[in-house]
Amino acid sequence: MDFPTPQPAGAFHFERIRYEKTGHRATITLNRPEVLNCLNFPALRELSTAFEDASWDDQIRVVVITGAGERAFCTGADLLEQAEYCLDHPNAYWKWMGAFIEVHDRLRNIGKPTVARLNGIVVGGGNELNMSCDLAVMVDDTYIRHVGPARGSVPAGGATQWLPILVGDRRAREILLLCDEIPAKQALEWGLVNQVVPRSQLDAAVDAMCEKLINKLPECVRYTKQQLNFWRDLSWHQTIGHARDWLSIHNLAGEVKEGIQAFTEKRPINYTEIIEKQR
To answer: Residue 279 — very low, low, confident or very high, per pLDDT cuts 50/70/90?
Structure first.
């Protein structure tokens, strides 16, 4: 390829996502429902490729991001992959985090409006993916949640940067420090999503939103989006490089080991033992 040229969606043969183009709309579906659409390294690479192609395709005027099945939109990083490849290996995590950052940079700078179709639970990095989109429609029987500080991580891949902008400082602290579920109705009231609808109306609501976005002037929309991204870009670029290195080094910490081991062993985290070891 000598110049940016979009390809037919079927030309990519993705395995962890589904990529479709219909008319002026592209739909990218995280296709790992058996693990609640969590993000492993191959999925991140496929997302980057799909976002790049959609950005190059002038026929595409809106991009929808969703998850396969009805249980989950996305639940963030694949902790089984983290346990196998990244735990105790800071350089491996640094590479993984680079792919995660690239996904967000390509999504925010895709040059056309993006809609998160939140079909199920939205957890951790899944909500960071949601917040990278311009608009969001959520089913009314699910929730948004961050669990990093309770599970051995820091939600610095978008959440610490963007939640204060979206919901205000105190609510951002409540979401990230308490790690409670935020039901759909509350997510709407707090500004985490734009619409909440019954599951039976999700596709119709997303279709209606996409139709409105398609019927706008694409160059004006692109620059409006660029200007709207100012505060998100400022907070992101001031912090994400540091977060990448700190999270990589912190992968050696006992907190991370206990969090990931508790997940893989399907048991509660032993907070008391962690605290005692740090005394």
So the answer is: confident
